[in-house]
Write a structure and sequence with these properties.
Chain A is an all-alpha fold. Chain A has helices at 11-16, 26-38, 42-66, 79-110, 113-118, 124-152, 164-183, 192-205, 217-225, 227-240, 246-273, and strands at residues 68-70, 76-78. Chain A has a two-stranded antiparallel sheet. In chain A, helix 6 (124-152) packs antiparallel against helix 7 (164-183) and helix 7 runs parallel beside helix 11. The model of chain B has no long low-confidence stretch (mean pLDDT 92). Classes of the chains: A mainly alpha, B alpha/beta.
Chain lengths: 275, 304
């Protein structure tokens, strides 16, 4: 792979992802995760319960204190209905980040799981796609559960809201990909504090709990750079049924992030394990 | 099966493999011997197509690892130096999932896992987790896992390091069986008895180069004498004796507590030593082993 000839046809894509990095076996990696998690099903229970607790807390507690807020399109909105779609994508983010950093770090540094995989036809891009794919599936499962709770609580009244689950999947995809790429840079478990340091403020400030207009303009720009902000805006707009063209921009941002993460992960794994 | 010419592997400034020629034939058991850091594992990783070569030529199963890595790896079995079993899965799942990485069907890997657990004597532990298994069992499972794709070429990096004698013999027994089935084996080891047991042909590596090549008996003939006479003394008392015996052998080696005389006939040398008034604490005549060859070629000092 060091001898990639720049003159070879195939051009840029082949240079970013040289052949031999992929053999179409990402599915087998996902199968492995399914088997491994089928014995750790408790993770799923906690993942589904957590957002439920959040929703109840907002319904019973904050909802009574805060009253209505201004939602997308200037419509007055129940505070719980304002927060719920944001929490949905935030939980997708949390699930994806957790899986793709802690899980990946352990397998990568200690268990040498990926070294074992690379001794087979499986390549680094298979590993990246498989692990990220699994994180997305898991995030999707949480999102479906969350969506179910939302509909039971009467917060789903627009047909557009059906798109909340795919949005959650996209958010999970972007964060899993970036998370996994970052995990390859971590050297010791204590460095997971960096992950927390990135995720917690993102969770709190990406217009999850209050609208962008709360911030002074310079800070608004900063917040708009955060990936979770784009997920929250997408989800909230769809949840109340006010779609607009900026949503394409939000989605494009998340897609780009996801693609960047997948490529970076595959290249990092190749550089570190195939040396 | 493997053809290397002037093969080089560099990591930054460090040259782990410095231009080696290797030729491994189908059906043979080929060994890489050498102290730690000799370049054995780097060579094995290049052959396993998970480490691109820095320079030189290499073909594995007639293919170029740089371009056809996945196709080569599909036909290889690899037993790494350290077991990297999947601790999140059971014994059976380890085999089945690994088979799936090769793209084998679910029904095929189910059947194959059952066969391999039988082969590795792990059937009773089929649904146990991997972590509580003994070192020998884990090693056997790693070997079983490497066979899931019916490889033509099996690469074993120090297959029995850290195992007790019973476990080692069981592993050797399994490797003999594979060899008799026509699987080509490439083994690295620093155990001389292992090399003598397993290998038809071997190379001794030292400092990234090949120091010698041949069958175990050839190497002993070429680099050692038929027998070795060991004369043991209280530490320090061997020095004055050296002058009395150094003409009795082809080669003499002086260690802190003994003198080694490399000679065609140990008994004859011992008699003549006695006749000259040499009185060791004890003496031993033994056949030369690959260990003598190894120490001669790679030196006695510790390599770190």
């Amino acid at each position: 792979m060091t001898t990639t000839d720049p003159r070879r046809p195939g051009g840029v894509l082949l240079r970013i992802l040289p052949p031999g990095l992929y053999s179409g076996r990402a599915g087998a990696i996902i199968e492995r995760s399914v088997l491994s998690y089928s014995r750790g099903w408790l993770v799923f229970v906690s993942g589904v319960m957590e957002p439920l607790f959040y929703l109840l807390a907002f319904q019973i507690g904050f909802g009574a204190l805060v009253g209505d807020v201004t939602g997308p399109g200037g419509r007055p909105l129940d505070y719980v209905a304002f927060v719920a779609p944001a929490l949905l994508v935030a939980s997708a983010m949390n699930g994806a980040v957790f899986d793709s950093t802690f899980g990946v770090f352990f397998k990568f540094r200690y268990a040498k799981t990926y070294d074992a995989m690379l001794a087979t036809p499986v390549g680094p891009l298979d590993i990246a796609a498989g692990e990220i794919g699994w994180a997305v599936l898991r995030g999707g499962l949480y999102a479906v559960a969350f969506f179910g709770v939302m509909s039971v609580m009467g917060m789903v009244d627009s047909p557009w809201a059906m798109l909340l689950v795919p949005v959650a999947l996209l958010v999970a995809f972007a964060f899993a990909a970036i998370g996994m790429a970052c995990a390859t840079f971590l050297r010791s478990p204590s460095q997971f504090e960096f992950v927390q340091l990135a995720v917690v403020p993102m969770f709190l400030f990406s217009t999850t709990f209050f609208p962008l207009s709360v911030y002074p303009v310079p800070l608004q720009v900063v917040v708009q750079c955060l990936p979770l902000y784009h997920g929250v805006e997408l989800a909230r707009g769809l949840s109340v049924g006010v779609p607009d063209l900026t949503m394409l921009g939000h989605a494009a941002y998340l897609f780009a992030l996801a693609a960047l993460g997948v490529v970076a992960t595959a290249r990092r794994l190749a550089g570190l394990l195939l040396r | 099966m493997v053809e290397a010419k002037a093969l080089v592997k560099r990591f930054g400034d460090f040259e782990a493999v410095r231009g080696i020629d290797v030729h491994v034939r189908r059906g043979e058991a080929f060994g890489f011997l050498g102290p730690n850091g000799a370049g054995k594992s780097s060579t094995m990783r290049m052959i396993a197509s998970v480490s691109p070569r820095t320079d030189g030529e290499l073909t594995v199963l007639g293919l170029d690892p740089d371009r056809e890595g996945p196709r080569i790896r599909a036909r290889l079995g690899v037993v790494p130096q350290q077991d990297n079993l999947d601790s999140e899965l059971t014994v059976r799942q380890n085999l089945q999932v690994y088979g799936r990485y090769f793209g084998l069907s679910r029904s095929h890997v189910r059947r194959r896992a059952a066969e391999l657990m039988e082969f590795a004597q792990l059937t009773e532990r089929a649904d146990d987790e991997v972590e509580p298994l003994s070192g020998g069992m884990k090693r056997r499972l790693t070997i079983a896992r490497s066979l899931v794709n019916d490889p033509e070429l099996l690469l074993l990096d120090e297959p029995t390091t850290g195992l007790d004698p019973q476990a080692r013999h069981l592993v050797w027994d399994r490797l003999f069986r594979l060899k008799s089935q026509g699987v080509t084996l490439i083994v690295t080891t620093h155990y001389m008895d292992e090399a003598e047991q397993l290998c038809d042909r071997l190379v001794v590596m030292d400092g990234g180069r090949i120091a010698a090549e041949g069958s175990p008996t050839e190497l002993i003939r070429r680099f050692a004498t038929r027998e070795v006479l060991e004369l043991r003394f209280a530490p320090g008392e061997q020095e004055p004796v050296v002058g009395l015996v150094d003409d009795l052998a082809d080669r003499v080696e002086v260690l802190p507590d003994r003198i080694l005389l490399y000679t065609g006939s140990g008994e004859a040398a011992l008699e003549r030593a006695h006749a000259r008034g040499v009185r060791p604490v004890s003496s031993l005549v033994r056949r030369s082993t690959l260990e003598d060859v190894f120490l001669r070629l790679t030196g006695r000092s510790l390599v770190e």
